[in-house]
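Re: Re: token formats

Sure, here are both.
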Amino acid sequence: MHTRVAFVETPAERFERLKDYPFAPHYQEVDPAGLRMHYVDEGPRGAPPILMLHGEPSWSYLYRSMIPVCAAAGQRVVAPDLVGFGRSSKPLAVSDYTYQRHCDWVCALIEGLDLREITLVCQDWGSLIGLRLAAELEPRFARIVVGNGFLPSGTPPSGSRLRSFGNVAAFLAWRTFARWSPFFRISSILQAGTARTLDAEELRAYDAPFPEERHKAGARAFPRLVPLSPQDPAVPANRRAWEVLERWEKPFLTAFSDGDPITRGLDRSLQERIPGARGLPHRRLRGGHFLQEDSGPELAQATLELIARTGGAPA
């Protein structure tokens, strides 16, 4: 049990009148310490859910162009803010964030809402958490869509650009910057990973959850939690997850962007290793690391087409 965690909540007024984000807030307690996870819940409650998991350092705002498309097609959409992000509770110490705790928190949301027949849509850290939980809670998941994400297990996958020294060095530099740089503006990071230019209101929305430096511990923690070595404490659980994924026969679609150098090539590795990826119309979408910003409606449509193709509701 995770107790005695000091945390803060971002004031509600920070989220008023955000551009293209009219969604009512919902909360689920996910930790004995009282931490709450915020989530968007749109569309018919009786429909099988599409679970949209964001990554670093965004929040459910990233999915704002996809949520209405999927809900209008008759799908229920659940888009949470990971703990430390968005409208969710924010532990104050970087050490309060671990890979296992993030998985536990999202697991508590899934089980608390009793989500079943889940279509997972995940990117960046949403993939690190989502793919692990899809393996650990396999009966609850019906299909998976991954964009610009992977499940690392301590060694770079075959064919990955992360095998090159330059990209490893770049990631390590980013990890150091995230932990120690006195300038860590969230909206600037989102803009750097997006091909199109975000307008002032969109930038304001990405900064909204973080009114003070103390709110950013979760965002600063994430890069150092990526398991890069076999000695990382997350590696055994991720390798067990891969044992499930390498037998995964359910639909598994990749929809990566054409402008993310770090994850380039990882879609091919997923397609080769996961049986459920065979024969599906994998996509290459326009955009940077945050492909939801550059090709959100296209990613939503790919998700709906996969659901229709594989026995779900019509798109």
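Second one below.
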Amino acid sequence: MPEPLLSPDRFFAADPGQRRVARELYESIAGLPIVSPHGHVDPKLLADENATFGTPADLLIIPDHYVFRMLYSQGIPLESLGIPRRDGGQVETDHRKIWQTFAENFYLFRGTPSGVWLAHELYEIFGIKQKLTGATAQATYDDLAAKLATPAYRPRALFERFNIEVLCTTDGAADSLEHHKAIKESGWKGVVRPTFRPDAVTNLALPAWKANLDQLSAVVGREIGTARALITALEERRAFFKTMGCTSTDSGVETPYTENMSSADAEVIFARALAGKATAEDARRFTGYIAFEMARMSVEDGLVMQFHSGCYRNHNPLVFERFGADKGSDIPVETEWVRNLKPVTDAFGNDPRLTMLLFTMDETSYSRELAPLAGHYPALKLGPPWWFQDSLNGMARYFDQVMETAGLYNTIGFIDDTRAFVSIPARHDVWRRASANWLASLVVRGLIDMSDAAEMAPDLANGLGRRTFKL
């Protein structure tokens, strides 16, 4: 009998004793519902019961920057993978040819998080019986295409098959939430909640900032000509999002700078931005001001505040100019939290009405800054290993670096942070296996007993996320 394509004991320690305990703990949580409190799945995908994923290339390659960034790193042009150009220039439209290129280079993903997720998707979700290679590419494409054409592989059907309890999307401040409304009104039982993200109208450095502000003005029905007017508009939109089921906000910044800025200074900077004369320093300070104001709003309206930092966006100008944002060239940068966050912790860190979740791509700050902060301030919690650290090794380093200082219950469990809907169960499975393996290491070393581990495992799987995000 051939060996399974995926080992049932994958990601567990080689030591037989620890592996046995890890397997037992994993089996106790493997089937628990998925709570996905932070991600980027397009709600349009679930608004129409007849929506489909399109072709295998539409599903796994063209929209997924985790996939095509690896291929690009090996010199494969994004045009050959069907990635749309901003100028409407010619790209490959033959999806079988795109798939063939992907399959011939599938070996590039060996030992990577993307490789783990893709293997889970192909073998576990779609039941592919052979490894993906150039030789098996077209047969695999045929198998996938046939399944994607059936009702069992439509988004809503997979949502239910994946046992997703709740899925949170990420939505701009000016978003009408029409797809969320359609989901609610359809009578479908799937729970999909919006998340309020204001970055498009608060980051003065964005080339489209003024156009984004004009969109928000149109939504609220009045011109936003002052910083105070912007704050009022954000408060109104947060209230609307709450009526649509929103429980959290999401703010992304390069550095976690915050500032309790005077209203006079805020108005001067905003006026310069409206005149097209804002400086990089203006943008930095105004972003810090908005972060402070978002924390203040969360104290007042109860929305959980997600605050993530440590990413240099769109590092490759050629890719950005040709293909736009979010095309795989975001790179981690170092961060400093203790001083940058102090205006917020001074004002709100001791207030139990605030729940502020800190995420970073700079894992060097985990044990030095973030774990001590989350382990002290009632308002702060530490997000999971995120983005570049969303991997088996990244999770292991996270457990080693933060848990002794922050404690498990000052962390928030797992977020999948994905646009790739069918990767959700794969990502959560990796986290659950890594969690079980970490707990097993504590058991075999006598730090906790099996009854402790049995209580901690479901919290890691979904309990912490459900409670933290008020889901």
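DSSP finds 20 helices and eleven strands in the chain. The longest strand covers residues 248-253.
- S.
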